[in-house]
Amino acid sequence: MFNSGLIKNKWVWFTILFTGLCIAFYIYVAPLFKPAIATFDNKPIVLYIPSGASYKNVKDSLVIAGVLTNVDHFNRIATLMQYAKDEVPGGKYILKDRMTAREVIGKLRSGNQDPVNVVVNNVRTLPELAGKLDRYFEIDSLTILQYFTREDVLKEYHLTPETVLTLFIPNTYQMFWNATPEKLAKRMKKEHDKFWNQERLDKIRKLGLSPVQAYTLASIVEKESNYVPERPTIAGVYINRLKTGMKLQADPTVVFATGEYDLKRVLYSHLAMDSPYNTYMYEGLPPGPIYMPSISSLEAVINAEQHDFIFFCAKADNSGKHVFASTLQEPSKNARLFSTWLNTIGIK
Hints:
Number of domains: 3
Helix content: 40-55%
Oligomer: single chain
Radius of gyration: 32 Å
Structural class: mainly alpha
């Protein structure tokens, strides 16, 4: 004889268990596969998580951005995946539209951040460089500046306050937003050593230059001419002057010494300025670069043209080109023409 009461109880417990599983599935499992991120234009969003931030900070940022489809579901999944902590990995994270909570939290929890394209170029000084790098990193420009002027850091990388810019080879680098100054310096050192390979080192050593000196000379070449094909010739002129003990007499160094970087015409009064960067007054290269040279200017020095030219002067035609000579007679004539041309266009 069947025990109907026992069978009934089993069905009751089965119903309760099944209902409980359904509820659990709805609460904890289903949200794992539902879109947790919904952007307004279906484009990815960029989430910056500061160092030392908590899960609450992350959640609040997503709530403020208005991209979470269900905050409660997101909270539950964060708890389930052990991400709801007082401190979470920082960095820059790109979250795509319709990512699930599992995908979002998995990415954030692992610290699998997305890199930043850091553009290093077109600066004259370390403070200017620090200001430019500020936009790419969590650290601010003052922190960067203070680090790269520390005595122990300069000693570690065999630099001086005047030559610190030579550590930076102009390029675009992929780095992490929360990189420390130490990591930035190590990365730049790695790229510096990669650029100065044995082939390039052998070439500049034949010219009697070190990497710092070649970089410094390239900075002068960079500001001397915007006409790239001419740069190896100009580099050859300056190397000839260095070899003969002649002063470089480079106008761009005088402009740097004045601090008037938009100066369009160097006058005799500027040439009298007593500065180690005034190559009309002091022999040899200045203490450090006057600009961050482009790769083309660095290569112009590394592969400097071999010739007998000692002098050159800008052409009076606004072409940016120069005339070159081994004697002073022809450049003097062109210098007068160039000076007259400057007068006619109102540059005093």
